[in-house]
Amino acid sequence: MSPENLPSPASQPNHGRSFRRLRVSLRAHGPIRTGLFVLSTIVISLIVFASFLSPTDSLWRRPSDWYGLLQKGPFVSNPKYPYPPTPPHAPTPAIPTGASRPSPSPSPSPPSDILTLEQIRDIVTPTKGFFSRDFSLGLGWNNMRYILDAAVLQAELLNRTLVVPSFVYARACEYNITVCADYATMVNKNDAIGWEEWRKLPYEQQMGFRIPISIMLDLPLLRQKYPVITASEYLRLHGQDPESESSSGFWPREQYIARPNVFQSNKTRTPTQFIIENHWYDPSGTHRVDYIPQEMKDRGKWGRHPGTKIGETAGSFAPEEPTDVSNRLTSALPDGKFIMDWDTAKTALRAAGLGTEVDLNNDDVVERTLNIHGWEVLRSFQSVIGMDYAKTIVNPINEVVHRSTIRGFKDDYHHVDADVVILAGETHLFRKPGAMRFTVESSRAKYASMVVHSLGSPPKVTALAKVLAARIRKINGGRLWMGAHMRRGDFARLGWVMEQNPEAHIRRVKDRLQAGRTVLARLSNLATYDVEGAKPDMEQLKLHPPLPDDKFFVATDERDPEALRVISEAGAIFLSELLTIEDRRSFGWPLMITDVRALVEQALLVRSAFFYGHGMSSLSGVIINMRAARGADPRTMLLD
Ligand SMILES: *[C@@H]1O[C@H](CO)[C@@H](O)[C@H](O)[C@H]1NC(C)=O
Ligand SMILES: *[C@@H]1O[C@H](CO)[C@@H](O)[C@H](O)[C@H]1NC(C)=O
Ligand SMILES: *[C@@H]1O[C@H](CO)[C@@H](O)[C@H](O)[C@H]1NC(C)=O
Q1: What is the mean predicted confidence (pLDDT) over 342-348?
Q2: 125 alpha carbon to ligand 1 midpoint, in Å?
């Protein structure tokens, strides 16, 4: 295949560094824990920084320290922000999280797969107990999804049942919000989440809709391989009211362990709990990995800390006198970083004069050489345009770190015997997919496979996308069709879109799709990304490539009629044009919710012959991952 058609990360500006600086500058505020004044200072500086640094999802993501401040905020049962907050319009009772209640919609959308207490117990029994964390329910769905990906991995490493929120917040309604409020509990997001970031927006934008997580995620699919229960199931298992579930996603430290498991015969034995403090997770200068293999422990003489107290780490490598080669590697580390890419490490070895003694073109030899000098190879995934926003899992990379910086999640916390283990705060921003790196290639591949094969959209979404894909193909005379994601909405309001005006933006999209058409016309030897189960999609060769004037699909949150007209006149078709009355009826009320529509748009773009999206968008990142799994050729997708 011809590499010139591939997105070239190397040629992209590396914004990663500036974002790291941002993180560092926020860290400096870490110890300060008092006063709203400080909080608002950080809020303002983040907004200033974020808009200065151009397009990001970053208002939705927060560095852990900030989150730490927020934890003390009005998360749960603050009398000032009662939950549920009183919706200004006739409130609908919460969608059943535990009890059943007739569904108001033409189709029963919240799946009625309510587990019995015995079924919940049977999920938990083969594991050591529960793992959960503070979920940031204020984030959009795709970021929540990435956090869930990582949480499934973290729970598995600890041999525990993962507890996920039973609901998420959708951000917008396709119609007047009063319409959606008749079908899903409308909440003021500020009150429900405990953040203030929407407070100054127009009323409509302060409101969100509480919807069951099963509308966004195929829970039965996830449960086929991983022990997962919802927080409302956890509460029922412990004799608590499922309606008392935390509204913010924060794990209430005392309330959730106040009652014994209903199967516990000793009625005074309430669950024990262990908190993994946020600042233990990956403090600066360390690298969190899944686990430390025995050979690595042997090489570095890893030993457990004496005593039984469980804290930041369970053990460490023995101190070593650095060799000259090791010093050479240390000085090759990029400024302020403790990790280098593979080529940098090789160059350093060559500069140390090793090129004559050992074969530096042989990766195994390079790795062994690094190991001898106290360094290790970690496995992860290539960032998109130098940043870890899109969290794609399609391009594996190797990176090099000093052994002493490695911290194994399993090594540190698997031996904890508390019933409940909680990871405190946020570990999402600036992290690699999985929120950790991997020590062996097979674990990385297994993680990638889990992301695309076990965390999927509900079957209803996939089925609708399939129908719509056929409809677009028909519009285009049966040819292959292309699509793009144009994020505008809040991005445009904040000046974060790739192109401010719709004319320039659609011109850019058409330009990329034009290149895509050439790719499709020239495809001959199909390739796939190296993701488990990916088989080349032969349709890419069987169907005719698009013609220059073919319609293309655009997923967008743009709702301004004038902007939509401009985009449409350029040849775009939108979801709203593709949907029929029958589609809407059979899908049911969730299709009125913008976030659910975005899920359908996403599933549709997974099926396009060529896809172009935003390099900083988590929605686009998921599309890339899912395309890889369906066997789309790597040349048929572009993020920039
Ligand atoms: C997980 O924990 C359960 C319960 O303690 C135990 O029976 C099982 O063997 C463990 N599984 C693994 C893979 O360690
Ligand atoms: C939504 O509907 C309500 C009630 O009918 C109305 O008062 C309000 O103005 C509408 N909002 C918008 C943005 O049209
Ligand atoms: C019941 O549990 C409590 C708390 O763990 C413990 O102190 C007590 O000894 C237990 N009673 C019995 C009969 O095991």
Answers
A1: 96
A2: 9
12 ligand 1 Cβ < 6 A:
no
How do beta strands 228-230 and 287-289 pair? Answer: unpaired
> 273 CA to middle of ligand 3, Å?
16
Contact call for residues 270 and 433 (beta carbons, < 8 A): no
pLDDT band at 491 (very low <50, low <70, confident <90, very high): low
pLDDT > 70? residue 589: yes
User: Is the minimum distance from the CB of 159 to ligand 1 under 6 angstroms?
Assistant: yes
pLDDT digits (tens, 9 = 90+) for 184-220: 999 998 889 888 888 888 888 899 999 999 999 999 9
| CB of residue 414 inside a 6 A radius of ligand 1 | no
For ligand 3, atom 2, which residue shows the shortest CA distance?
A: 269
Give residue 386's pLDDT.
Answer: 74
Give the number of the atom of ligand 2 that is nearest the alpha carbon of residue 89.
4
Residue 617 pLDDT exceeds 90: no
Give the Cα separation of 428 and 63 in Å (integer): 8
- Among protein residues, the one with the nearest Cα to ligand 1's atom 11 is 159
Query: Residues of the chain with pLDDT > 90: what percent?
Result: 70
Angstrom CA distances, 97 to 137, 236, 255, stand at 16, 10, 18
pLDDT above 60 (res 97): no
The tokens describing 86, both together, are 């009183």
pLDDT on residue 114 = 86
Helix (H) or strand (E) holding 131: strand 130-133
Cβ of 127 below 6 Å from ligand 1: yes
- Please give the C-alpha separations between residue 67 and each of 193, 280, 427, 431, in angstroms, as whole numbers: 12, 15, 10, 15
- Cα 431 to ligand 1 centroid, rounded to whole Å: 29
**Which band of pLDDT confidence, cut at 50, 70 and 90, is reported for residue 472?**
very high
Ligand nearest to the CA of 260: 3
Indicate which atom in ligand 2 lies nearest the CA of residue 177: 1
Section 403-414 average pLDDT: 97
Question: Per residue in 388-423, is it b (16+ CB within 10 Å) or e — as a string?
Answer: bbbbbbbbbbbbbbbbbbbbbbbbbbbebebbbbbb
Predicted pLDDT at 91: 34
The structure's pTM equals 0.83
What are the pocket residues of ligand 3 if the criterion is a CB atom closer than 6 Å to any ligand atom?
Answer: 266, 268-269
Instruction: Provide mean pLDDT across the span 155-171.
Output: 97
Q: Which of 173, 175, 176 to mutate to test the pocket of ligand 2 (most atoms within 8 A of CB)?
A: 176
Distance from Cα 447 to the centre of ligand 1, integer Å:
20
Ligand 2 centroid to 175 CA: how many Å?
Answer: 10
Q: Domains in the chain, please, with CATH? A: 58-84+113-290+411-436 (no CATH), 291-305+314-410+437-451 (no CATH), 459-639 (3.40.50)
Positive/negative CA dihedral, 194, 195, 201, 206: negative
User: 521 is written with which tokens?
Assistant: 């016309």
Ligand 1 centre distance from Cα of residue 124 (Å):
11
Cα separations in angstroms, 412 against 80, 288, 290, 314, 406: 39, 10, 10, 5, 11
